[in-house]
Design a protein that fits this description.
Keywords: Membrane, Transmembrane, Transmembrane helix. GO terms for molecular function: oxidoreductase activity. InterPro entries: Nitroreductase-like. Helix content is about 40%, strand content about 15%. The chain is an alpha+beta fold and about 400 residues long. The chain has two domains: about 140 residues, 3-Layer(aba) Sandwich (NADH Oxidase); about 210 residues, 3-Layer(aba) Sandwich (NADH Oxidase), CATH 3.40.109. A five-stranded mixed beta sheet has the order 3-4-2-1-9. Helix 2 crosses helix 3. It is globular, with a radius of gyration of 24 Å.
């Protein structure tokens, strides 16, 4: 008697196909959960936004630090350390967290430190302090031996009883928004007047453009500088090392950039999270596309902060303090802001390389005055989507008590 050969019916194929589909679906769900597409992200890296005025710290210097760590800063590097006593807080530049060829003179780092200083000053009165800020004098061009923290400023604390600045309550509302803006809605005149009225160092000047030749020239300079950065392998590698690939990496680092804050549409964001991280060249090429096609043309406002000397350390800190107040005022009014500082980053890079400063020349038609050196460029407007919250290291992680 012959052995009957096994035969596969349509039912068998359907059963096999169904099983494979279920396995594949389970894999997709697992991947989506691991990459933060579904479910909640780990909460620890984002808690500093919720406990920024924690009652446990109220009335202590640590309350000022808790506000300081929520400040605007380059690439979310959070380049700060704080040495705290009962009567003073030293703010130090953590030079181990610099951006290399993106910031060879630590200029952007010091702008970020100035932002932290402003948040801390705003937090002083609500916590019963009067504060005096002493910036560290000197030039960024003279800072050497960057393997150690560098003192940037000192906050001298005394007990006081002053009313809180209205911008204090805006601290947890301020987020960088890289989404498209609705340019057709314009920018409120009242807020522009508020920006112009912000007290600031006499060595600084604030420029604001909504249209016209200066607006177009500045927008073109931003796009050109972005293309030059993307063509510079060293710059994009130094930038790329601050990208965090997924929730687990962000949970470990609690700093840097992630897809959630990149300004992608919800559908594109979900797809991007499922895929492996792009190489530096491709991810920065996408950034250049966003800059050219979205960031610049959708901006209702383009602005810049200029200094008498962009490498003067006190002026650079003061520029950060001014930017922080501009960003807080916008956040309080429900508007979005986004640094677009690529033209000044290229000025630093060209100086480092000793090449012709094409980036500097592009600003001549914007400021109309060579006495003012741009140090920070940004855009503003009504965003089509709210910004995602960025990860932060908590106050305890960056504070040393002395």
């Amino acid at each position: 008697m012959k052995n009957k050969s096994p035969s596969f019916t349509r039912r068998h194929l359907l059963e096999i196909g169904t099983g494979a589909t279920l396995v594949a679906a389970a894999g997709v769900i697992w991947r989506a959960n691991e990459r933060g597409v579904i479910g909640e992200k780990g909460q620890e890296p984002y808690k500093p936004w919720e406990i920024w005025n924690d009652p446990a710290h109220r009335g202590t210097p640590l309350a000022l630090v808790a506000a300081g760590v929520l400040a605007s800063n380059p690439h979310n590097t959070q380049p700060w350390l704080f040495r705290v006593s009962d009567t003073r807080i030293d703010i130090l530049a953590d030079t181990s967290r610099n951006l290399g060829t993106f910031d060879p003179y630590l200029r952007e780092m010091h702008v970020g430190l100035g932002c932290a200083v402003e948040n801390m000053v705003l937090a002083a009165a609500p916590n019963g302090y009067a504060v005096t800020v002493t910036p560290h004098a000197g030039s960024l061009l003279d800072i050497g031996g960057r393997d150690e923290p560098v003192l940037a400023a000192t906050l001298h604390l005394a007990r006081g009883d002053a009313p809180a600045d209205p911008l204090y309550s805006a601290i947890p509302k301020r987020h960088t928004n890289r989404n498209p803006y609705d340019r057709a809605r314009g920018f409120p005149d009242a807020l522009l007047h508020d920006f112009a009225a912000i007290p600031h160092d006499e060595n600084l000047k604030l420029y604001l453009f909504q249209s016209g030749a200066a607006y177009e020239t500045l927008g073109a300079a931003i796009i050109a500088a972005t293309d030059e950065i993307v063509a510079d392998h060293a710059m994009i590698e130094d930038s790329h090392r601050w990208f965090r690939d997924g929730p687990q990496e962000m949970e470990r680092e609690r700093s840097g950039l992630e897809l959630d804050t990149a300004g992608l549409s919800p559908a594109l964001l979900a797809v991007a999270k499922m895929l492996p991280a792009l190489p530096a060249e491709q991810s920065h090429g996408t950034w250049a596309d966003q800059t050219r096609d979205t960031h610049v043309p959708s901006a209702a406002l383009l602005g810049l902060i200029a200094a008498r000397d962009r490498y003067d350390r006190p002026q650079t800190l003061a520029a950060g303090r001014l930017w922080q107040r501009v960003h807080l005022a916008a956040g309080a009014a429900g508007l979005a802001m986004h640094p677009l500082n690529q033209p000044v980053e290229m000025i630093d890079r060209e100086r480092q390389l000793g090449t012709e400063s094409k980036a500097e020349a592009r600003f001549a038609a914007v400021t109309g005055d060579e006495a003012w050196q741009p140090t920070f460029v940004f855009r503003g407007g009504y965003a089509i989507r709210d910004a995602a919250v960025s990860a932060r290291r908590g106050a305890e992680m960056v504070t040393e008590t002395v």
